[in-house]
Amino acid sequence: MTVLKTSMRNFFAHKGRMALSAVAVILSVAFVCGTLVFSDTMSTTFDKLFAATSADVTVTPKSAEDAGDTPRSGKPESMPASVVEQAKRAKGVKAAEGAVSSQSVTVVNTKNKNMGPTNGGPTIAGNWTHNDLRSMDITSGHAPRGPTEVMIDADTADKHDLKLGDELRTIAATGDLTAKISGIATFKVTNPGAAIVYFDTATSQRQLLGATGRFTHVNLTAAAGVSDTQLKKNVAAVLDGKTSSYDIKTQKETADDNRESVGSFLDVMKYAMLGFAGIAFLVGIFLIINTFSMLVAQRTREIGLMRAIGSSRKQVNRSVLVEALMLGVFGSVLGVGAGIGLAVGLMKLMSGVGMELSTGDLTVNWTTPVVGLVLGIVVTVLAAYLPARRAGKVSPMAALRDAGTPADGRASALRAVIGLVLTGAGGCALWAASQADKAKDGSLFLGGGVVLTLIGFVVIGPVLASGVVRVISAVLLRMFGPVGRMAERNALRNPRRTGATGAALMIGLALVACLSVVGSSMVASATDELDKSVGADFIVQPTQPGISITEKAAQALGKADHIAHITRYKQINADMTTPSGKTVDGVGLSAADPSYATDLRRETTAGTLSAAYGKDAMSVGDDFAEKHGLKVGDELKIAFEHGRTAKLKLAAITNDDTSVDKGSMYLNITTMEKYVPADRVPQNDIMFASATKGQEEAAYASLKKSLDAYPQYKVMDQTDFKQTLKDQVGQLLNMVYGLLGLAIIVAVLGVVNTLALSVVERTREIGLMRAIGLSRRQLRRMIRMESVVIALFGALLGLGLGMGWGATAQKLLALEGLKVLEIPWPTIIAVFIGSAFVGLFAALVPAFRAGRMNVLNAIATE
């Protein structure tokens, strides 16, 4: 009980100092809990949607599972309408209905503006069925009754200010269809962001499948008293031997499959955010360690007196740990609440970019607060263990000394040795990674090197502080005379504290530097490869995922003026049998026009690429050729997906030492079309064009004009394409930097806390300096300079460490063809200078409080 009272008294006696440490715990726990609540809410939203949209039993073509939501032909896999009648005869079927659904569509308004989601969500077109009434109600107008009518979902209508009577054009693989909005349907559950358009059944079949009398799936409703599982068995029995051609799934199985399709995306988002929360926790550990170390140091006399009157080491140790426990409980409880608020904020943010999430689906599982509380409390107590252990070692004789902080001076020799060993081991691991022959093997060394060098720098930080701070001070502080020298001495007074404070900032900035180097190197490598490999003047690509370039759009491109040639590029899967008799399943083939050989300059190790575009010929990459013992002139059996088997001559082996089309196997489009039925020929994934000599600008304008009616495609010259790559990498890095911002905030709090406690620790010293003539302005400047030096110390270590990690990572990327190392010096310099401003900002409050200190009271302080 005495230990508890002592702990509580000390805890509340330092409320302000504990508050800063509590903020670190609150932020870290909030990020973890917010991530869990947000991801659980997203899962709940999709679970409700999939449960509401799935029929009791669904029958789909077996081939649809391999084709996915967006088959390369642009037309979904389908089955004859007779399956509906066959399934209806099964015992226990209350109703059977054929349905059509496709995600290979784009919907535009009369101004050719895309009405689909901008967040990566799908645009889905299909026929309106009774099964849709499970999840939607027609709230305005009526369902479509013919080819001139279309119905849309209310979310899309609200987002784009659409109303009854407005015209929409639906672009599909089979052509374009213009229809007026006849109805608007509202979801009964939350729609995360898909755009839905409905046609009548005949129009859906003709427009989306290119044939009448076919459906993509059959929805079956069970009669009363019949379970979904039993109905599935009954339907399988009726379809008899044809079940090998169809997938038959219950509502739960269909919902589980749909959930699995989005589960990987949700998991990546969840674990990435938890990773950044872990970084924030790691940074927070340094803040907590520093806080308790300084509090213990400032209570040396108090602890000594406690030991003198009979307190044991264990009791003193326990007293400090109880304070940490109270801090952990307080911070974790608030952090859990803040995490729920953070999740709501993230939901609002996602709604702003097009992914709708309703607070009505807010999901707080019991595990979330438990994880937050346990994590926050355990981390806080563990961080306080070393200071608590140090407190227990204070001898009773300390009570006879003056109050103040005992000189903590130099880090121990043991610490220096351990730090050097860890750093050396990490450096060796990074060197081994840079020398690896395979990226997979090197990544293991890279991961080990990152961890070891990070821990090594943290351990050796106090040793490095003495030298690095002197160098920084010589450059920045000496010009400020005595005030600058005092700031330098203050930063050097306790190397362990300076090292721990700088380490908190070092971690975040090391990751920033590493990712900046990797991102810049990726862009520079891709740009360099484009300059060397791409000979085409223009590149045409879809701007949204999951769609290809339709034949009608390709024809429009072909009518552009000032064009020397247009190159089509398609991909198709096939099974390959080598001369040795070995069959390789599911190889990807790139079918292109012969002009692709000049549009993309690929080096060959044997044969010529132009020969690969000859009659019944193809090429393979040298890695594949070496693995399967192939040589030019070999005959390969190619069983095309949905097509016939061909015998093709191996006419070229391409060099895979590239990042563009690495490992691609080429053949002429006419060769592919010879063995694949016309309705199974894939659409173009990408297209290339070259201008008539001297007409590049006119050709560029003509190509763009030809696609005015197709906003889902973008025409780019090489400059545009490079900028697009740069923008994509930049967006990803900006998102990562934003998440790392939490760790930077916690690190800034650590600097604030260190300075605040340092000011209290040096109260008498400050009073004496003020008494002998140091002005308030000079005092504040001294504290600000001390903060800047500490921040720059952490930045220097972090940026140096991060650039080392990034350079090693680039060596591994070079094995995949990304060979250019580029250090983004503007970013590195900006971050370093920004760290100085971080130091200034962190010192504002401590410097202000020091300046307001009463001189006489300060001198009298013990």
TrEMBL record:
Q: What is its main location?
A: membrane
Location relative to the cell: Cell membrane
Ranges of residues in domain ABC3 transporter permease C-terminal: 276-396, 739-854
Q: Which InterPro entries match?
A: ABC3_permease_C (IPR003838), MacB_PCD (IPR025857), Macrolide_Exporter_MacB (IPR050250)
Q: Residue ranges of the MacB-like periplasmic core domain?
A: 19-237, 501-703
Q: Which residues cross the membrane?
A: 271-297, 320-346, 366-388, 413-432, 444-477, 498-518, 735-760, 787-807, 827-848
Segments for region (Disordered): 60-90
Q: Name one GO molecular function term.
A: transmembrane transporter activity
Q: Which GO terms describe its cellular component?
A: plasma membrane
Matching entries from Pfam families are given as: FtsX, MacB_PCD
Q: Which residues form a coiled coil?
A: none
Tell me what topology the record assigns in the membrane: Multi-pass membrane protein
Give the keywords, sorted. Cell membrane, Membrane, Transmembrane, Transmembrane helix
Its domain of life? Bacteria
Q: What family is it from?
A: Belongs to the ABC-4 integral membrane protein family.
Task: State the name under which the record lists this protein.
Answer: FtsX-like permease family protein
